[in-house]
DNA sequence: TGCCAGTCAATAGC
DNA sequence: GCTATTGACTGGCA
């Protein structure tokens, strides 16, 4: 049925909405829109025909919106079944600060946390293998450490230009860590230098592995070969039918035939692949990558937040969504970059993966200030005192004397205990962090709107009938539900997107009726694994 | 101006 | 403490 303004009203004669209106599961809402529910809950005689109609519409849409708790938990769409309990207004949780692209951080992290990393790669294999529980270390770096980061930034000429930190600059770190770390620069692939156009054809299995060869000096190539033997092969075969003989990779690596890392760094190879060679279309099997990443994060007990921040420069929620609901490569646009970073990380030798994870440069002060200002525009409640969740260090730079960096370190517990200095710094930074926490607590967070049960049910019901209601209809809906027009608009926008984003929705035709589950839960039983339908999938109207 | 992709970040639930 | 969900924001595009 095509939902129109007329038939919304036409269905208002149905009265089963009474159950809905008196639902015990309609959560008291702190939102301004909660008055709508109150209206219909306590003064049914006064409720508008529009709301009644919407409620009836839901009841008539297959019984998916019963107020029965079991129905809510077991069959409803997540967006409907949520919020049976009161909404917590606690500020206990903090969120990652705005993120930025990461520089190749492994060298720095190794300096502090991985003193052995430059000796023998195999040691890292031992250290990083197995189930490793992570821990966090807040570090305040001294200037030597910062200086050592200089050559890292050099790979980010656009966003992190740092004078005197060009490619050739040698830092105490680079000189001290030897060839391995000098050759680690391609970790910039995790950062903006890895930004490629959506049509870039770079990550063929060949180029991908060759670029990794460039990360290691010849002395480490044996290790690389071993590492790739464990991980690279599967990734090759994961690349949407682009099979490449693994031995050819290893061969080229061992012989150091192609150093695409340099090509990438200097902007030549990024969009071209191997000059003169067969340039295969870059196509990452996002589903496979997501599964691999998920497995690796579990394997090493790496929190999503850490991986998202360190490797992807994304938030935890974004990563979670990408891992659970990867879009097909062909449907990705700029989002391909995020999967490229995952893909690249998967190709790293294990010790290098861990190394990259161990340190995060959260945000340079200027960038953070810019975003804070931007955020203040968007969220007036967010003041310029926005802080990061990590320690802040001042980075000496002739061009940017006020340049500050926040450094957050994550270390596998097997590494960390020996470094007393780190502990000292960590405690100092912990104190600092506590201070900031107090500052933060004085800044009211923007409270997130959570639809009331009625609002959500109504919106979902309408969406099921009409995924793209007219502007006029959205206005009516917003008025009747006591929501902002932009909120209603956003709802339909998000719903359309999250419906069709999911793999299975289009390919398998799974509908909303069969895949409703408890929200916010790790309900794997109702979660359709990647490659089929997502549990939060809407059906197509 | 509206739509969309990508993402943030609040927060519920485990 | 961690992950999943989801309302909202930004920038690009037609």
* Helix/strand class: mainly alpha
Kindly provide the radius of gyration, computed on alpha-carbon positions and rounded to a whole number of angstroms.
Answer: 26 Å
Any low-confidence stretches, pLDDT <50, length ≥5?
Answer: 8-189, 191-280, 360-408, 413-429, 503-541
Number of helices: 27
- Percent of residues in helical segments? 40-55%
Q: What is the quaternary state of this protein?
A: single chain
Shape: globular
Query: In total, how many beta strands?
Result: 4
**Main pleated-sheet profile:** 4 strands, antiparallel
Mean pLDDT: 51
| End-to-end separation | 9 Å
Strand content: under 5%
The gist of it:
The protein has 541 residues and is mainly α. It has 27 helices and four strands.
Q: Features of this protein?
A:
globular, 4% strand, 541 residues, One cut domain family member, mainly alpha, DNA-binding, four-stranded antiparallel β-sheet, single chain, Homeodomain-like_sf
Describe this structure in words.
- Belongs to the CUT homeobox family.
- One of its GO terms (molecular function) is RNA polymerase II cis-regulatory region sequence-specific DNA binding.
- Residues 1-72, 371-398, 512-541 are annotated as: Disordered.
- Residues 7-16, 526-541 have a biased composition (Polar residues).
- InterPro entries: CUT_dom, CUT_Homeobox, HD, Homeodomain-like_sf, Lambda_DNA-bd_dom_sf.
- Residues 8-189, 191-280, 360-408, 413-429 and 503-541 have low confidence and may be disordered.
- Strands 1, 2, 3 and 4 form a four-stranded antiparallel sheet that branches.
- Helix content is 48%, strand content 4%.
- The chain has 27 helices and four strands.
- It is globular, with a radius of gyration of 26 Å.
- With 541 residues, it is mainly α.
- The chain starts with a helix and ends in a 34-residue tail after the last helix.
- It has helices at residues 5-10, 17-21, 34-42, 49-59, 69-74, 78-81, 106-113, 121-128, 143-153, 172-177, 179-182, 205-213, 221-237, 246-254, 260-265, 286-299, 304-312, 316-324, 336-347, 350-358, 365-378, 413-416, 420-442, 453-465, 471-481, 485-500, 503-507, and strands spanning 135-138, 359-361, 391-394, 404-411.
- The structure holds a DNA duplex (14 and 14 nucleotides).
């Amino acid at each position: 049925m095509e939902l129109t303004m007329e038939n919304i009203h036409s269905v208002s004669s149905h009265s089963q909405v009474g159950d809905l209106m008196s639902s015990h599961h309609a959560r008291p809402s702190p939102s301004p829109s909660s008055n709508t529910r109150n209206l219909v809950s306590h003064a049914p005689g006064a409720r508008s025909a529009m709301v009644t109609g919407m409620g009836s519409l839901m009841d008539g849409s297959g019984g998916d919106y019963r107020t029965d708790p079991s129905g809510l938990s077991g069959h409803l769409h997540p967006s409907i079944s949520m919020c049976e309990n009161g909404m917590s207004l606690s500020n206990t949780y903090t969120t990652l600060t705005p993120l930025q692209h990461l520089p190749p951080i492994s060298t720095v992290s190794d300096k502090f946390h991985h003193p052995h990393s430059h000796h023998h790669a195999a040691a890292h294999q031992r250290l990083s293998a197995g189930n490793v529980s992570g821990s966090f270390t807040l570090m305040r770096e001294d200037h030597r450490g910062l200086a050592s980061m200089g050559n890292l930034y050099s790979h980010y000429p656009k966003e992190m230009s740092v004078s005197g930190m060009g490619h050739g600059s040698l830092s105490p770190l680079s000189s001290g860590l030897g060839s391995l770390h000098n050759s680690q620069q391609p970790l910039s692939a995790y950062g903006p230098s890895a930004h490629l156009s959506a049509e870039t054809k770079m990550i063929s299995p060949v180029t991908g592995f060759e670029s990794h060869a460039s990360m290691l000096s010849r002395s480490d190539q044996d290790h690389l070969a071993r590492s790739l033997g464990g991980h690279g092969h599967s990734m090759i075969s994961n690349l949407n039918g682009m099979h490449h003989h693994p031995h050819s990779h290893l061969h080229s690596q061992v012989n150091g035939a192609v150093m695409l890392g340099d090509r990438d760094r200097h902007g030549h190879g990024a969009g071209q692949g191997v000059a003169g060679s067969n340039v295969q279309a870059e196509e990452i099997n996002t589903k496979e990558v997501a599964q691999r990443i998920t497995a690796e994060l579990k394997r090493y007990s790496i929190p999503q937040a850490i991986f998202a921040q360190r490797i992807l420069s994304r938030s935890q929620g974004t990563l979670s969504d990408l891992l659970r609901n990867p879009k097909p490569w062909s449907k990705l646009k700029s989002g391909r970059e995020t999967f490229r970073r995952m893909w690249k990380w998967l190709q790293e030798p294990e010790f290098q993966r861990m190394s990259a994870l161990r340190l995060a440069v959260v945000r340079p002060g200027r960038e953070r200030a810019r975003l804070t200002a931007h955020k203040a525009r968007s969220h007036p409640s967010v003041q310029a005192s926005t802080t990061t969740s990590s320690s802040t260090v001042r980075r000496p730079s002739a061009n940017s004397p006020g340049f500050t960096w926040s450094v957050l370190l994550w270390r596998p517990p097997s590494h960390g205990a020996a470094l007393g200095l780190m502990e000292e710094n960590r405690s100092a930074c912990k104190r600092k962090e506590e201070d900031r926490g107090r500052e933060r607590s004085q800044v009211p967070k923007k409270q997130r709107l959570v639809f009331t049960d009625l609002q959500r049910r109504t919106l979902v019901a309408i969406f099921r009938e009409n995924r793209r209601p007219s502007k006029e209809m959205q206005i009516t809906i917003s008025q009747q539900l006591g929501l902002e027009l932009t909120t209603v608009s956003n709802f339909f926008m998000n719903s359309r997107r999250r419906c069709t984003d999911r793999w299975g929705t289009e390919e398998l035709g799974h509908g909303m009726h069969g895949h409703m589950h408890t929200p916010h839960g790790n309900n794997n039983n109702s979660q359709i694994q990647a490659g089929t339908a997502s549990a939060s999938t809407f059906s197509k109207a």
